Amino acid sequence: MKITLLYFGRPAEKLGIHQESVEVPDTLQTLHELAAWLGQRGEAWAHELTESRVQFARNQTLVARNTPFAAADEIAVFSPISGG
Amino acid sequence: MSIAVQHDDFDFAAEYAALRNRHRETGAIVSFVGLVRDFSDAQTVQHIELEHYPGMCENVLAQLVEEATERWQLLGARIVHRIGKLHPGDQIVLVLAAAPHRADAFSACEFMIDALKTRAPFWKKQTTTHGSEWLATKTSDQQRAARWNPEDRT
Asked: Which positions in chain A have a beta carbon within 8 angstroms of at least one beta carbon in chain B?
């Protein structure tokens, strides 16, 4: 399935990427599994996408790591938010 | 619009006047302005860079105004948040709440800034004399925001 990935904050800076359209295996069900799959891209990816370092938004709503995702979703991966 | 995300600085007096002139029933306006501090953990801050998630961020801020309006008796509210490169002393965020009475204005203003800290997708990179780091919402900020959850209220 094809999804859009957006990166903000620390992972965007450290991995040098802000947005990509990716074909991911249909076997992936949750954002946790997606993060683990992206972590296979290399050491920096595995390090930056470690559980304690990132949060997720699915279609512009903050969600937990165990949230399922689907084709055509917009998934954002980012370091903990800090506004104000 | 009751919310704005912008690079430019905001004019407090103009924002206040706009809200003040909106309703004759307004009896109280409470404001909060957040500034860039010039120190953090005893290190001198040189500048911060603020990034946001376009679309989602504006939606969350509008949602906060909507929630505050549902929860308290308000006549108007406004949130302005800056993005980009800011320096110590610069204004970062403005929250205004107008109500017939002060109790509603105080509570609504405090709720909006507390909830903004934990729900609005902004990221802050701070550069000090010791280097750069991405800041996370503090535990104290999370505790302040949690006070407003309906199930936690007494």
From this structure: 6, 8-10, 12-13, 57, 60-62, 76, 78-84
| B123·A82 Cβ contact <8 A | yes
The answer to whether A37 and A24 are in contact (CB under 8 A) is yes
Residue B108: pLDDT over 80 = yes
The vertex-A82 CA angle with B109 and B132, nearest 5°, equals 140
**Are A39 and A18 within 8 A, CB to CB?**
no
Asked if the Cβ–Cβ distance from B119 to A62 is below 8 Å, we say yes
Name the nearest CA neighbour of A79 among A20, A34, A29, A12.
A12
What is the helix (H) or strand (E) element at residue B67, kind and residue range?
helix B56-71
pTM over 0.90: yes
Of the candidates B48, B51, B100, B58, the one whose C-alpha atom is nearest the C-alpha of residue B79 is B58
Q: Which residues face A51 on adjacent strands?
A: none
Place of tokens 């359209």: A21
Which B residues, 8 through 47, put their C-beta within 8 Å of a C-beta on chain A? 34
Q: Which residues pair with B109 in a beta bridge?
A: none
Backbone angles phi, psi at B113, to 5 degrees: -75, -35
- Interchain CB distance below 8 Å, A83 and B134: no
- Average pLDDT (B15-40) is 93
